[in-house]
Amino acid sequence: MNRLVTKNYLIPFILITSCFALWGFANDITNPMVKAFSKIFRMSVTEGALVQLAFYGGYFAMAFPAAIFIRKYSYKAGVLVGLGLYAVGGLLFWPAKEIGIYAFFLLSYFILTCGLSFLETSCNPYILAMGDEATATRRLNLAQCFNPCGSILGMFVAMNFIQARLDPRSADERALLSDAQFEALKQSDLTILVTPYLLIAAVILAIFIIILCMKMPRQGEENHDIRFWATIKRIFSVRYYTEGVIAQFFYVGAQIMCWTFIIQYGTPILMGQTPSGFEQWILTVLHYDTPATLDERAAEVLSQGYNILAMAFFILSRFICTYLMKYLNPGLMLTIFGSIAMILLCGVIGWHDRNGLYCLVGVSGCMSLMFPTIYGIALKGMGDDAKFGAAGLIMAILGGSVLPPLQAAIIDQNNIFGLPAINISFLLPFICFLVVAIYGYKRFRKA
Fold first, then answer.
1. CA dihedral in degrees (28, 33, 35, 41; nearest 10)?
2. Contact between residue 74 and residue 132 where contact means Cβ atoms under 8 Å apart
3. pLDDT at 260
4. Taking a C-beta distance cutoff of 8 angstroms, is the pair 118, 62 a contact?
5. Whole-angstrom Cα distance, residue 92 to residue 201?
6. Do the first three CATH levels of 1-215 and 227-447 match, i.e. the same topology?
């Protein structure tokens, strides 16, 4: 059986795989910042949500420019530009804090995520190229295992080093402060908020220097001709690629919905309940005093704890799936796990108790293989066109900003046909997983 990573690719594989954890960290430290910025700048939630617009905007805007750059130069050059922009975006948080204007933070996020777009457009196809094509999808699944490790670290840092340390005064209480008092409080909170971004920028610069000095393989980089529109027309004429972009759009939307709204789903379920021994342990790990009966704040913290548990399950499942791909067709695995996710979502929709919450955690185990597997299937056999193909799949991340607001609009209805709207809203990710399962089945049939 072909080796997943051969000896001559091992060090480059490890270095590029470390980048997967870095963008996972950025993604999940940023999600809670919507609420943080809303409080710090006394803004509405809608204004605070501009963070996500800037974040996904960088991904969307830079994907094809990154592909053109990589085609002209190399995967290594693309990785270095990505790390450089990521570091610059992080370092710009300091002058943004000194200026104290929200728009400068949005600019910092945009530059940072332009770097992430370069990284994802470079690293995913680079991993696919580091060895035999027969093991490419498994190899990408292995590298992607480290993405949620970075995500968990990002969640942990956001909760314990930002949210827990910000001044607890509400927006209404802050509105009563004088201008001088508010400015002093704002600067104090912004110092807390920017510190992790400055530290991760230092880490990124260190990795930048290591990769810059390291001799990296140049697999699949023979052609440097840029014929943009001809290449776009060619790759989108490949049906399994076009369908893969669509499947990726719906998968990313489902992922963000399931992880974003687990707090809205779990909080009303847990409120007023006596925490189980397991839930007491979660609250202890999160450094939260366990009440006899869960109030709204404790239920919200515990729901976030279940979200972290879901991410841990996601990581474990990804390692298991990477192993199973030695024996099972990737398209078949997409079909199986997409179908199981739909069954679990029936439980999420039908139950409004802890059983539904357990089902929602279980969905994360099904999601673990989907992004890299769709990616690997869609780019299979594309050769040098994989650089532009990768950009289209990265742009499909836009599903993470388009679909969650639709679910939020459903949740805002409170009740639909006498049922909790939060339950009904999970019909959206159900439909998304149906699209993924159909894509997997069609590719399995064609294998």
1. 180
2. no
3. 79
4. yes
5. 10
6. yes
Topology (CATH) of 1-215 = Growth Hormone; Chain: A; (1.20.1250)
Please tell me the distance from the alpha carbon of residue 61 to that of residue 84, in angstroms, as a whole number.
17
**Assign residue 170 a region: left if phi > 0, alpha if psi is -120 to 50, beta otherwise?**
beta
Radius of gyration of the chain (CA): 22
Nearest in space to 146 (alpha carbons), one of 5, 320, 18, 325 = 18
Beta bridge partner(s), residue 416: 419
Q: What is the mean pLDDT of residues 235-244?
A: 88
Distance between CA atoms of residues 49 and 38, nearest Å = 8
pTM attached to this predicted model: 0.80
Work out the angle between the directed axes of helices 399-411 and 239-260 (0-180°, nearest 10): 40
- CATH number of the structural domain 227-447: 1.20.1250.20
Q: What is the DSSP letter of 217?
A: -
Structure letter (DSSP) for residue 214: S
pLDDT digits (tens, 9 = 90+) for 362-401: 999 999 899 889 988 998 877 777 778 888 888 888 888 7
At residue 287, the pLDDT reads: 74
> What's the maximum distance between 2 C-alpha atoms anywhere in the chain?
70
Q: Tokens 């704002």 correspond to what residue?
A: 186
| Residues listed for the chain | 447
Cβ neighbours around 224 below 10 Å, total: 11
User: How far is 269 from 298, CA to CA, in rounded Å?
Assistant: 12
Predicted confidence at residue 149, as pLDDT, reads: 87
| Phi, psi (degrees; rounded to nearest 5) at 215 | -75, 120
Q: Domain limits of the chain?
A: 1-215, 227-447
* Alpha-carbon gap, residue 117 to 86, rounded angstroms: 10
Q: Chain centroid to CA 341: how far?
A: 18
* 133 to 374, 376, 377: CA distances (angstroms): 15, 10, 11
| 50-64, 170-184, 222-236, 429-443 — most confident range | 429-443
Question: For 100, phi and psi rounded to 5 degrees?
Answer: 75, 25
Say how far residue 211 (Cα) sits from the centre of its chain: 24
Residue 85 CB neighbours (<10 A): 24
